[in-house]
Amino acid sequence: MALPFLLTGCQTQSSYDQLNLEEITITELQQGYENGDFTIEDVTAAYLERIAEKDQSGPKLNSMLYINPLALDIAKEQDAELRDGQTRGPLHGIPVVLKDNIDTDDMPTTAGANIMAESVPDQDAFITQKLRDAGAIILGKANLSEWANFHSSFSSSGWSALGGQVHNPYDLTRNPCGSSAGSGAAASANMTVFAIGTETNGSITCPSSANGLVGIKPTVGLLSRSGIIPISHTQDTPGPMARTVTDAAIALGTMAGIDSSDAKTFESEEHYHTDYTQFLNPDGLQGKRIGLWTGSLGGHFRVDTLMHETARFLESQGTTVVEIDQITQENVGSASFQVLLYEFKDGLNKYFASLGDDAPVKNMQELVDTTLSDPEEMRYFDHDLLIQASEKGSLDSEEYQDALERMLRITREEGIDRVMDEHELDAIIGPTGGPAWKTDLTNGDNFAVSSSSPAAQSGYPNITVPMGYIDGLPVGISFFGRAWSEPVLLEIAYGFEQASKVRKAPQF
């Protein structure tokens, strides 16, 4: 299928290899611009060339859905501004990729669904505009698990009817994990400096782990969700996915802020920072007290071994590690599922209404009818979750209200907050995921290891950092904790990254 704005080729004056962009950071790029080593146009063109060579042809990573047709024009404008001594902000001239459920007014926003292929919103999402204001150059939109992986009774992470299957750059036969699959694969494969994903439960952390990245799932409300195709306004949040903690921290600060269109951001008013790099302490592990959640172990013996080795490493760096067997005293998975079903219907209906007369479908029921009649949509997966959500009532429902109250109470004051108080913890750790499984469109995903649910269901922050490799496949460690504890989590995550230096670029 020919997609609007899909990259078919790019001419560039300087190649990606000639500019030595492999694993380059935000700071290094900006120093290069300042020193005249290369221009923003050079760098932007080189990334576009790399996408054409590695993503759309050759090994065909398939991480991208759309390319921004204005990217090179914007780069030229920003070069002219630099020559005049002007800069837009901390991301001036820095290429970024957005997950394709985040609105952009110059490209479609599709959630990977065929019916949304030509849906171009009238305005940017709040965080899109924040990134542009900070000087970021949006290269394009990343492929994703369709409807952020909340559509079928089983599915393959990174598959969408519109874009097909995203592959893992460490092994193209393996899965990139999570709904932010394209964002993770593109950032890891050096097709962008960093990417933006979204998470409801594991969709930033899991693809960051499987692709050897740092991923920040912030406290819900730290970053606005307006202009993002939703699943759950209780659990959804965007967040940065980058190759270093520093780059992720820079990106996080540029997107934080109060948005009148997202009431949850009002809760962040006393908590958000525009510069999170101030918390990056190379000695951030010293004196910290961290809980190892043993309940996240047992899914893969080699992951368990790596986790215990990492716990001993943390102790060697001055950290006290305390084993904790449980975080919540009750399983709230069923309550969370009901919250997601209700809020998915409510959120999608509101999103479709926001598109006005140009909306490709008007409501959830029309989406279900259209999807079930599309042979490409029904080729692999049943889209049963769309059907279940469409049958739910309003958010005034007693079933919804009870599920929401139970989930938040058990995961917050009776969960993470209680455990951290009892053990005097600065953070909790667990393996983010296991090594990437073989992609299987017949049987779907194979999640053997995960620690994302406590932070996801409570709406609390979670940062994953590369922890090690199993047969050449990356595995991450998650650091999570109380609401608004991003500063201390970043200090710990940075201290671990600087002491361990684990990440290796994928070689396809």
**Gyration radius, to the nearest Å?**
21 Å
Provide the domain count. Answer: 1
Output the strand order for the largest sheet. 1-3-2-6-8-7-12-13-11-9-10
Strand content: 5-15%
CATH topology: Amidase signature (AS) enzymes
Distance between the termini: 25 Å
Shape: globular
CATH C-level name: Alpha Beta
Plain-language structure description:
With 508 residues, the chain is α/β, with parallel strands linked by helices. It has a single domain (12-508), classed as Amidase signature (AS) domain (Amidase signature (AS) enzymes, Alpha-Beta Complex), CATH 3.90.1300.10. 34% of the residues lie in helices and 13% in strands. The protein contains 14 helices and 13 strands. The chain has helices at 26-35, 40-55, 71-83, 126-133, 181-188, 205-210, 245-255, 301-316, 333-354, 364-372, 384-390, 398-423, 453-458, 486-500; strands at 64-67, 95-99, 137-142, 159-160, 164-165, 194-199, 214-217, 237-242, 289-293, 320-324, 427-431, 462-470, 473-480. An eleven-stranded mixed β-sheet has the order 1-3-2-6-8-7-12-13-11-9-10, sandwiched between helices. A two-stranded antiparallel sheet has the order 4-5. The longest helix is centred in the last third of the chain and has 26 residues, at 398-423. The chain is globular. The chain starts with 25 loop residues before the first helix and ends in an 8-residue tail after the last helix. The relative contact order is 0.13. The model is unreliable at 1-14 (pLDDT under 50).
